[in-house]
Structure formats: C-alpha cells, structure tokens
Write a structure and sequence with these properties.
285 residues, Rossmann fold, Hypothetical Protein Tm841, Chain: A,domain 3, six-stranded mixed β-sheet, 10 helices, 25% strand, globular
Length: 285
C-alpha cells in the first residue's frame, strides 16, 4: 500500500521528514498586527519572533480552507492518505479537513472514479509534538505492511493513549486567544512560577507548577515518565521553539528517568511558535 501523511502546519516535521515526499503540510496563516505570514516552507522563525515582539497585538492563526485540503488529497499520489490535524478544541483545521474529505469523496462518486485511493482524517487531540508522534506511528504501521483500516484503527488507539505536555515561558498568547477556556489565568511571572500543562482529550489542562523553567521541565518529565509506564517500546517527541539547548536538556532528563525506543527532537513551525512562544517546549509520549 502506497501512502501519504498530510498534516496541517502544526505537524512539526523533522528536517529529514520535510525532505520525504510521503509527508506534506497544509499551511495555516499567521496574523501579527497587519502582517500576514503563510506557515509553509518559507516560514522564518527568528524573523517571526521579532515581529511578535515588536507588535503590541497578540498574534493569531487562521486554519486552511477545505478547498486547500481537498486539493492536497487530489494531488496525493498514494492509495492511502492519512491526514493529521490540530485538536478540534484548539482550531478549525480539523473541520476543514473533514469537510474536504466529504467533498473529495462526493466528487469522485459523481465522476465514477474507481481507483483505490482512500482518505482518513485524524483529530490528533493534540498539537506539534503530538501530531508528529502520531505521524511517526502511522508511518511505522504503513512500512510494516498493514492494510488501511487496520492502520486507522491502531492510529486512533495510539492517539487515545498518547499524552502531550508543555512548559512555556508565558501562557499569555494561549490565554488571549481563548485557548485556556475554563482555566484561571496565571499571573505568577514575578515569582517565576512555570505551570506544567497537559491535554485532556484535546483540551488544555494544568497538571502542576514549579519555580523556574528547569524545575518546570523536570516536573514535566516526572509526570510524563510516570504516565508512560513501560516506555521501552515508546517514542518520545520533543518540539522546541528557538531553544535547541532546552530540548536537549529535556531529552537528557527523560533518559535519566526511563528507557525509550527513541527520543526525537524537532523545531516548531509557525503555528506552534505562535502559541509556544520563544523558548517553549512541547513533549508527546
């Protein structure tokens, strides 16, 4: 079975995966004041962070149109197309991808196209490192020769047992854009308190807190390893925003606590850069 894995631009691919034609990103659009930035291969993280720092307004994101997704499905030269999106609780990207699938299938039925191409849209219930971890898992299943329906079934099971965590320098962008609904805002910056955040079925929750970024990252690793259980066959994915040294620190802290099949480090593209902010770390196991 030939396959293609398509993600919105919060699927933070590694540099190697960006060069692999079996992976594709459908870009969101980023808004900083009057400036619009397309979150594609032209995204310049350092320049974007400079724009954000200089702009008094909070940056925002806009999801891809259904037509953009539909075009990606049509152009995919594969029998199986797996689409991984941001949590539906955080973005309209999943809705666009699902609508695109319906339009794609209706059009093919009308034209009586009878090839074997199939599309499945998976709500990651996560973002960034979480989307990448699902993509890696799906790739492994496809390379192992599993059929389409079995890949979908196992991928959804994997998603439901995967955990996502993050520690950021500030939660202001998430708060101002309404992504922390139901949570009290954190105003502890004077005390250098760093909340350890997680996800509950795609909704952001607070798990713990610690004083200072390194203590926060250590606490995140404690919780992640505890919840991971037997991790010897699991992949941990770390996404960082403009701080590779901090990602290496988290990798070392995880390795102190448990043995993993692999620990993958990637850098945030535009969407995760908006919400994670300079120095933010996202972890998915």
């Amino acid at each position: 079975m030939t396959y293609k894995i398509i993600g919105d631009s919060c699927l933070d691919l590694t540099e190697e995966m960006k060069r692999d034609s079996r992976f594709q990103m459908v870009p969101l659009t980023l808004q900083v004041g009057s400036a619009q930035v397309v979150d594609d291969e032209t995204f310049d993280q350092k320049k974007f962070l400079g724009l954000v720092k200089a702009c008094p307004e909070c940056p925002k994101t806009a999801c891809p149109s259904p037509e953009t997704y539909k075009e990606a499905y049509e152009q995919a030269e594969a029998e199986a197309v797996f689409v991984i999106t941001l949590s539906g609780h955080l973005s309209g990207s999943n809705n666009s991808a699902v609508l695109a699938k319906r339009l794609f299938e209706e059009e093919r039925a009308e034209k009586q196209i009878t090839d074997n191409k199939r599309v499945e849209v998976i709500d990651s219930l996560s973002a960034s490192a979480g989307e990448l971890n699902i993509a890696l898992y799906i790739q492994g299943l496809c390379e192992a020769g599993l059929e389409f329906d079995e890949v979908v079934k196992r991928a959804l099971e994997f998603r439901d047992r995967m955990h996502t965590y993050f520690v950021l320098e500030t939660l202001d962008t998430l708060r101002k854009n309404g992504r922390l609904s139901g949570l009290q805002a954190f105003f502890a910056t004077a005390l250098n308190i760093k909340p350890v955040m997680g996800a509950d079925k795609g909704t952001i929750i607070k798990l713990d807190q610690a004083r200072g970024i390194n203590k926060g990252l250590q606490r995140m690793c404690d919780i992640a390893v505890q919840e991971a259980g037997d991790s010897a066959d699991k992949v941990a994915v770390i996404a960082h925003c403009n701080n590779a040294q901090r990602a290496d620190y988290v990798k070392a802290e995880l390795a102190k606590r448990a043995k993993f099949k692999e620990i993958v480090i990637t850098e945030t593209a535009g969407v995760a850069t908006v919400y994670a902010g300079d120095g933010g770390i996202v972890l998915a196991i």
